[in-house]
Write a structure and sequence with these properties.
The protein has nine helices and 42 strands. The protein has an eight-stranded parallel β-barrel. It has three domains: 330 residues, Glycosidases (TIM Barrel, Alpha-Beta Barrel), CATH 3.20.20; 113 residues, no CATH class; 130 residues, Jelly Rolls. It is 15% helix and 31% strand. It is an alpha/beta fold and 669 residues long. About 3% of the residues have low confidence. Helix 1 links the parallel strand 4 and strand 5. The chain is globular and about 70 Å long.
């Protein structure tokens, strides 16, 4: 298999290739969970796992190098290969990643040279680090039969620190040259390109987030340009806590439009705590597709937990000269997969895009975007519908995004779009809707002239859509389902299966109550609650604990050690208990949130007088893997199934049976 790129798209064996990429940090996850996490990513449609190699996680003390346990990079890359995925390594040396010093060890900052400059003493240290990393992944590059196809050099260089102009490009080219000289061998070399960052001629990758937790303001901010359908690739706001937004430093006509940092969620800061919703991620992604993107890369796709440092905590903080304070442990990011591998609504939403791109992405790559004159380019323009057309000269898609995170948008009726020299049938776009409608689309047995529905996938010869209606020629092999059913849809062995619970690697991951589990709670001083849990079933896959609380933040201690923490954003926090050995006692310490606190919240909790400091309740839910048997289902059927509360999977069901969603719940007064 050969990988390459044109000025418009990536290629695989010479053909257009539209992959999905998701960020997962191996050093922020337990090694014994990597396989399951990657399986969930793969089931969500991710083709490429990307990861920073965080220097301070591997060499916190100078000369004391650690690539063992959760930091075992080689073992992680091998696991990626076993999962049937490809790998994109982001080797820094500066990565940001909301980690201490942007990933630089403290000892590096104490040297008698300035990091991220063209000082040869700095390059010597980078070369030593690159050699350490290269030795870990030797033999795992694609040309050697391994999964690694891409290397990203640095991060936001010249935008968030570093040099600009020709000196900045020299720096990036020098780093890439060092990496190549010590053994990195890949078809794709990339650098982040937004906000005036220097790319040194490498393949630029872009980004965009639904909101800005790093913004210094304590008020609602303006609507994000990332929900606009626009030919502009740049996001001026990424990294604005550390740098000033500026234009592109490369010629976009020379490179395909690729993203590596679309926000799969948002990591809150102490100052600012916007809540990421599934529609934020999905609508932004649809807007980027309409803008001409040919690679969707998400940061983060899988959240994590910061490892314990030997010399300090390892989170970004104002104590290290950075503008923001982050939780000491939690890097959940409200990502599609959370810090404990829990699946969020955005995981389901992004699966719709992944199914679409798996079957239609190669064709989409060949379709250049056209932006109608009435498509608004300003984020605060609510008078016109955001839309574009991508086509190949014969057929294509109308993309639209009528979702806005900050301010609502009106419905649009009698929308009329011209494509390929004619006016398409009129359609309506409700408020908060986003999607893409095909026209002149060839399908088995005919043509979809126009559909007020979004393509989902191909099921054998049948093209499946979700939405309102399809205008197709007689004999066209199409199937229309609802959007709700599309969110439950899985394509297995050529058959579409609707399931209320996620299907991963031929098994269903089911959440259910456990009547034997007992949860108690007692107050142990102001803002401190001790939870007791007994009756675990050792055969259970996991138990998930969800806390409801009101306060500025919580600290979760297990065995006297800080296991997790959270800054209040919506009043809930999830803790996977298997990772902590199914503990029988958990201590929750809540810090007060005061009415005059210098913090932005999308909504405030109920305050007792002028503050809040309370753990209000806890819910514990058991999860299990249940095998899925498709043997008796016939090709072409679309069975609807749900997991029973106990036991094994039944024979195919004629109608859905809702699984029990209750759980062990304790209110704390």
């Amino acid at each position: 298999m050969e990988f390459g790129y044109t000025t418009k798209y990536l290629t695989r064996d010479g053909e257009p290739w539209f992959p999905l990429m998701g960020e997962i940090h191996y050093s922020r996850l337990p090694r014994n969970e990597w396989r399951e996490s990657l399986a969930k990513m793969r089931a969500g449609g991710i083709d490429i796992a990307s990861s920073y190699v965080i220097w301070i996680h591997h060499e916190e003390a100078e000369g004391e190098v650690d690539f063992t346990g959760n930091r075992d990079l080689r073992a992680f890359v091998e696991e990626v290969g076993r999962a049937g995925m490809l790998m994109w390594l982001r080797i820094g040396p500066w990565v940001h990643a909301e980690v201490r010093n942007g990933g630089f060890p403290d000892w590096l900052l104490s040297q008698d040279f300035q990091p991220r400059t063209n000082d040869e003493r700095y390059f010597a240290q980078v070369e030593r680090f690159y050699r350490l990393v290269s030795a870990q992944v030797a033999g795992l590059f694609h040309s050697q039969g391994g999964p690694i196809i891409g290397i990203q050099i640095e991060n936001e260089y010249g935008h968030c620190g570093g040099l600009t102009g020709e000196a900045g490009d020299v720096h990036i080219r020098r780093l890439a040259g060092i990496a190549g000289s010590v053994g990195f061998e890949v078809p794709y070399w990339t650098a982040t390109g937004w906000g005036g960052a220097m790319t040194g001629g490498l393949l630029p990758v872009m980004g965009g987030y639904a909101d800005s937790p790093w913004d210094p303001r304590l008020t609602a901010i303006e609507p994000s340009g990332n929900f606009v359908i626009t030919p502009e690739r740049n996001d001026h706001n990424i990294g604005s806590d550390l740098g000033l937004g500026a234009g592109l430093t490369f010629d976009p006509t020379r490179f395909p439009y690729l993203t590596a940092e679309l926000g799969g969620g948002l990591q809150v800061t102490r100052r600012r705590r916007p809540v990421a919703h599934a529609a934020d991620v999905a609508a932004m992604s649809m807007a980027k597709l309409g803008s001409g993107v040919n690679l969707l890369g998400y940061y983060m796709y899988h959240g994590g937990i910061n490892p314990d440092g030997r010399l300090s905590t390892l989170q970004e903080s104002t104590a290290t000269g950075y503008p923001n304070d982050l939780p000491v442990k939690s890097y959940d990011f409200r990502a599609p997969l959370g810090a404990y591998g829990q699946l969020s609504d955005s995981w389901q939403e992004l699966r719709l895009l992944s199914m679409f791109l798996r079957d239609f992405g190669s064709e989409l790559c060949r379709m250049l975007p056209e932006f109608p004159p009435d498509n608004p380019l300003e984020p605060d323009d609510a008078t016109r519908l955001r839309h574009s057309v991508r086509h190949n000269g014969e057929w294509g898609f109308v993309f639209f995004n009528n979702y806005n995170r900050v301010a609502g948008r009106p419905s649009f009726t009698d929308v009329r779009v011209r494509a390929l020299g004619r006016e398409l049938p009129p359609f309506e776009v409700p408020a908060d809707a986003y999607g893409c409608y095909p026209f002149n689309m060839p399908v088995q047995g005919g043509t979809v002239r126009f559909a007020r529905a979004t393509p989902l996938c191909r099921m054998g010869m049948t093209t499946v859509f979700y939405g309102d209606d399809i205008d197709a020629t007689p004999g066209a092999d199409v199937l229309l389902i609802s959007r709700d059913d599309a969110l439950r849809a899985y394509l297995l062995d050529g058959r579409l299966v609707l399931s209320d619970d996620p299907i991963i690697d031929g098994r269903c991951l089911v959440s259910r109550p456990d009547s034997e589990l007992a949860v108690t709670a007692r107050h142990d001083g102001a803002g401190r609650v001790v939870l007791g849990i007994s009756g675990y079933d050792p055969s259970a896959h996991d138990y998930g604990l969800r806390l409801s609380y009101r306060g500025d933040s919580i600290r979760i201690l297990i065995g006297g050690r800080l296991a997790d923490d959270d800054f209040w954003a919506d009043g809930t926090h999830y803790l996977g208990l298997r990772r902590h050995g199914f503990p029988d006692e958990i201590v929750v310490e809540c810090a007060a949130l005061r009415q005059d606190a210098p913090v932005f919240l999308e909504r405030w909790p109920f305050l007792d007088a002028d503050s809040a400091c309370a753990v209000d309740g806890v819910t514990v839910t058991r999860t299990d893997w249940i095998p899925l048997d498709l043997g008796s289902w016939q090709a072409g059927e679309v069975p609807s199934v749900a997991a029973p509360p106990f036991g094994t999977w039944p024979t195919p069901l004629e109608s859905p049976v809702e699984p029990c969603r209750e759980s062990s719940t304790v209110g704390i007064g």
